UniProtKB/TrEMBL annotation:
SMART domains: PKS_ER
Cofactor dependence: Zn(2+)
Protein name, as recorded: alcohol dehydrogenase
Pfam families in alphabetical order: ADH_N, ADH_zinc_N
GO molecular function, one term: alcohol dehydrogenase (NAD+) activity
Enzyme nomenclature, EC number: 1.1.1.1
Highest taxon in the source lineage: Eukaryota
Length: 414
């Protein structure tokens, strides 16, 4: 928003803001407002003056407490608490926003976090969840140049916030920013009715997508879309997808088909086979019943093997045979995150000119692109909807590998 260059009156009116303080301000050095409710504005005349912007969605009452799924410490049972505190609008920091969550997907990463599977520990106590959609109901005072406004329907991703100024942020590796905040891991996530997020990183949701259907694009979708982007493939190439029947995998099948790739889906069980075939997989290999997985994958892919393998299996077994079945010059994209050795043999990696590429979620731009492809009807999250109180059972089913596609929780009715 540009400011007048001369002394005069500024009327600020931001859409949907209830208690906007529209004030007449004379740009004089002596002007002052109470510091807790003021916004500093530098002017072209080097004066600094202040206006107050209280930013809560019109007519919306933020409750003092909420229902949230809390894990007190790694390995502890999940508790659904109804009296969990909600950060109030006045307590939000500049750049923070309060999102009223309607839906959230449940990712295997949430289960890794709950179980303490990873060498980087999560916060304690932990509210997991990083595939959330909701409405912005408050924005922190003194927030500068927010790209979103009150009332916007936005998504919350794994990467909750980053500085946007460091070398990693500038080079498109926002997720590797030293100041990165991770939803449901280092900051509270979306398994609660209200979550504090960050105006620069929440993702606007296209109007044509309903919230339940959009939620899992914010992690499973963007991650597989980005993984395929770095897979070094082109139209007509083969891609193998170990983990194809899971939350990430079933979206990988669809993004791959949308990109003109041929897909050999690898997973197990009749339900997942039916799902991936219905989504366009060209070939199927069941990793549990196959007697020779490498031979079966090669047979399905012109005898030469796939040009890339994008592994979304949450177990190391999804990785171990990839170097063997990949085509010469192929790319192994690591997405699934077991804390384990993946058995890449240096001799065969070199001898077959294999590229091994780690792929970690996606940038803000990747998320927008992944959502746009879904909005165009080319990718659809296949999910069963449950409620927040069902989360414990969902974790058990995920652990047992019983979930084909995704589970999306309705957190609040909106
Ligand atoms: O940024 C990232 N790289 C990122 C983002 C989001 C999630 C990574 N992840 C990671 C998660 O932390 C997890 O380790 O991706 C992995 C998969 O997450 P998910 O899709 O949410 O999990 P899921 O729904 O349980 O699906 C996993 C599938 O893998 C299959 C299972 O049957 C299941 O369908 N699978 C397994 I376990 N072993 C397999 C194998 N050897 C296998 N499929 C083929 N071969």
């Amino acid at each position: 928003m540009s400011l007048p260059r001369s002394t005069g009156s500024i009327i600020r009116s931001l859409p949907n803001q209830s208690s906007i303080y529209t004030s007449s301000i004379r740009l004089l050095p002596s002007i002052s407002f109470p510091s807790s409710i003021t916004k500093s504005i530098s002017t072209s005349r080097s004066f600094t003056t202040s206006i107050k912007i209280m930013s809560t969605l019109q007519g919306f009452q933020i409750p003092k407490t909420q229902t949230a799924a809390v894990i007190q410490s790694v390995g502890a049972d999940l508790e659904i608490r109804s009296e969990h505190p909600v950060k109030q609008a006045k307590d939000l920091q500049p750049g923070e926003c309060l999102v009223h969550i309607s839906h959230t997907g449940v990712c295997h990463t949430d289960l890794h976090a709950k179980s303490g599977d990873w060498p980087v520990p999560p916060m304690n106590p932990l509210i997991g969840g990083h595939e959330g959609v909701g409405t912005i109901v408050a924005i922190g005072e003194n927030t500068q140049k927010s790209p979103v406004k009150l009332g916007d329907r936005v998504g919350i991703k794994w990467m909750a916030d980053s500085c946007l100024n460091c070398e990693f942020c500038r080079r498109g590796f926002e997720m590797n920013c030293p100041q990165v905040k991770l939803s449901g891991y280092t900051v509270d996530g979306t398994f609660s009715e209200y979550v504090v997020s960050y105006t620069n990183h929440v993702t606007p949701i296209p109007e044509v997508l309903d919230s339940a259907g959009a939620a899992s694009i914010l992690c499973a979708g963007v991650t597989t879309y980005k993984g395929l982007k770095v897979s070094n493939t082109k139209v007509g190439d083969w891609v193998a997808l170990p983990g194809a029947g899971g939350g990430l995998g079933h979206l990988a099948v669809q993004y791959a088909k949308a990109a003109g790739l041929k897909v050999v889906a690898i997973d197990t069980g009749a339900q997942k086979e039916k799902l991936v075939k219905s989504l366009g997989a060209d070939a199927w290999v069941d990793f549990k019943t196959s007697k020779d997985l490498v031979a079966d994958v090669k047979k399905a892919t012109d005898g030469l093997g796939p040009h890339a393998s994008l592994v979304t299996a949450s177990h190391k077994s999804g990785y171990t045979q990839a170097i063997s079945y990949l085509r010469e010059g192929g790319t192994l994209v690591c997405v699934g995150m077991p804390d384990a050795e993946m058995g890449a043999n240096p001799f065969w990696t070199v001898f077959k000119s294999i590229r091994i590429q780690g792929s970690y979620v996606g940038t803000r731009q990747d998320a927008i692109e992944a959502l746009d492809i879904a909005a165009a009807g080319k990718v659809k999250v296949i999910f069963e909807q449950k409620e927040l109180k069902d989360l414990k059972d969902v974790y058990e089913d995920l652990e047992a590998g019983k979930i084909a596609g995704r589970i999306v929780l309705e957190v609040s009715k909106q």
